[in-house]
Amino acid sequence: MRSEKTIYFILIGLAVFLLLNLGVYARSYGRSDVFKEDIYEPGTLKPRDSVLKVKVGDRAPDFSLPAVSGGKVSLSQYLNKMNVVLSFVPAAWTPVCSDQWPGYNIVKYIFDQHDAVLLGITVDNIPSLFAWTHRMIPEGDNLWFPVLSDFWPHGVVADKYGVLRFDGMSERATFVIDKKGVIQYIAVHDINKRPPLEEMVRELGKLQN
Amino acid sequence: MKRIFIKLLAAGAILVMLFNAQPIGANSTPKKGGTLPAIKLEVPEDPAQRSYLGLSGEGLFDIPQIKAESVIIQIFSMYCPLCQREAFRVNELYENIEKDPNTRGKLKLIGIGAGNSRFEVEIFLKTYEVPFPLFPDGDFSIHKSLGEVRTPYFIGVKINDDGSHEIYYSRVGGFEKAEEFLQLMLELSGLE
User: In three state form, how does the secondary structure of B109-175 look?
Assistant: First the structure.
């Protein structure tokens, strides 16, 4: 009876060990020294926590959101002019998000090749996004793409697309929308991991310029 | 029957723990005076890069197999704003090494892209015209083995004649002047 108890303890210990290790392997990110100690560590989150409300082939829901650089940006302003990539990231000042858009900032030429614009969206407010994006870019430079705040009414655009998580953050999600305003690609990524760039580039390559 | 099953399960559990005994977060950053963790890199396809590293054939190699007296390893990422900003300085470091007959061939420079796929490493290489070999670490496995250091991170490794090696520099952050950094590396590695 006693040895059985010991065995149960061992099994519980193993379960805890494996769960903790799963946590380690579930999250993967680098961290630039540019952010020093200012990144909040949220731990490993549920990979996906929302239900999509749109699908490939649907007309992309229009929106108009304030941009960090000032003014508002609407999806409809690109209609019949540019392909659009929406990059939703969950939150400013978090590890994976801080390790995503700075990479997109050096591949403008890829978007140009495909007649596409990138719109970065989070549910953070403008002041937070201002501080965060100014930290992530080299001095005197700017992110080439608009960064939009879906803060108020909170997450309304993320919700329209079905990528507003139950905790109020958005998913890490990518939507590719063609010039006709039709959704051509949707990826709701594991929130704990940065999506590989080649995935987005491959989808851009499928668009008709 | 139930008891035997539980005992077998427990024995399996102990074995898993023994073979997986690396505690979470146990990988520490490389220490001066220490050695590198086991890092396997793919021999570059580019003959010029193979020649620079003094490697032949295909497959994987260990950093101490590089034909050099000392190797500087830059842990970078194409997603890292500081790595982007300072890429030109690291290129300058390479150029300074190569133009001096006292360092050319003795001190080599490589980069490892933390969490960067081959595609992403190529983007960084082309964007900043990086003249030295860069290697992908798409699944962060090397980055994890190096204690998940922030980027950029530089590691200086001295390679001894017998194939052993020793870390003489391990620090986060870039450098202001390529010439000064090279001088520091030469002093610490004993090349000067």
Answer: EEEEEECCCHHHHHHHHHHHCCCCCEEEECCCHHHHHCCCCCECEEEEEEECCCCCEEEEEEEECCC
Rounded Cα distance, A35 and A108, in Å: 23
What pLDDT band is residue A7 in, cutting at 50, 70 and 90?
low
Instruction: Mutate one of A14, A39, A98, A201 to test the B interface: name it (highest B CB count within 10 A).
Output: A14
Place of tokens 């986060």: B172
Best to test chain B binding among A31, A37, A110 (most B CBs inside 10 Å): A31
CB contact under 8 A, A196 and B83: no
Helix (H) or strand (E) holding A73: strand A72-74
**Number of Cβ pairs < 8 A linking chain A and chain B:** 110
Residue A25 has pLDDT above 90, yes or no: no
Q: Which of A30, A105, A198 sits opposite B77 (nearest CB)?
A: A30
Q: pLDDT at position A31, please?
A: 85
Q: How far is B181 from chain A (nearest CA, A)?
A: 18
If one looks up domain A2-206 in CATH, what number appears?
A: 3.40.30.10
Residue pLDDT, tens place only, A55-75: 999 999 999 999 999 999 999
Give B127-168 pLDDT, tens digit per residue.
Answer: 999 999 999 999 999 999 999 999 999 999 999 999 899 999
Q: In chain B, which residues have their Cβ closer than 8 Å to the Cβ of A8?
A: 6
Domain boundaries, chain A: 2-206
Cβ pair B143:A194 closer than 8 A:
no
Q: Please list, in sequence order, all residues whose beta carbon lies within 8 angstroms of the beta carbon of residue A99, skipping any fewer than 6 positions away.
A: A29, A30, A31, A32, A194, B77, B79, B80, B115
Domain B30-189: give its CATH code. Answer: 3.40.30.10
Q: Which of B115, B151, B174 sits opposite A194 (nearest CB)?
A: B115
Tell me which residues of A are annotated as active site: 97
Say which DSSP state B184 is in. H
